[in-house]
Write a structure and sequence with these properties.
Helices cover about 20% and strands about 40% of the residues. It is of the alpha+beta class and about 120 residues long. Strand 2 (about 45-55) and strand 3 (about 60-70) form a beta hairpin. About 15% of the residues are buried.
């Protein structure tokens, strides 16, 4: 009898912990936001980083900064969102120590709410 009371007590405590955990979770309020999350398709090189620059209100992506492995100096790099035409990007100076090349793509007016694919071509 004493053993079943202990088991019942343990089940009750576990239920209380679970209920209080979901009560705390349900109390959280997080505002809706989108920051251009999606996928990237890159042909001709390997990118190791992609960071978007947002407009002050956060509703528009205005630029993208990429880091490529290897020396991309002298290559043409173009990028764009979705099915839009790709536009030319600016290739930075190759870092021989890290073996990376920074690239900046600007002039975008892409909505963060509707962006889904960022395409990049290197030739």
């Amino acid at each position: 009898m004493r053993k079943s009371i202990k088991v019942l007590g343990a089940v009750a405590v576990a239920g209380l912990v679970a209920a209080s955990g979901s009560a705390f979770t349900a109390a959280n309020t997080v505002p809706a936001s989108v920051a251009g999350y999606g996928t990237s398709t890159i042909s001709g090189a390997t990118a190791t980083a992609l960071n978007y620059t947002l407009a002050a209100d956060g509703a528009t992506i205005t630029a993208a900064a990429l880091t490529f492995t290897g020396n991309q100096t002298g290559k043409t790099i173009k990028a764009g969102f979705g099915t839009a035409a790709l536009t030319a990007c600016t290739v930075g100076t190759h870092d021989t120590t890290a073996n990376t090349t920074p690239v900046t793509c600007s002039g975008y007016t892409q909505s963060t709410a509707t962006s889904s694919t960022f395409n990049v071509a290197v030739s």
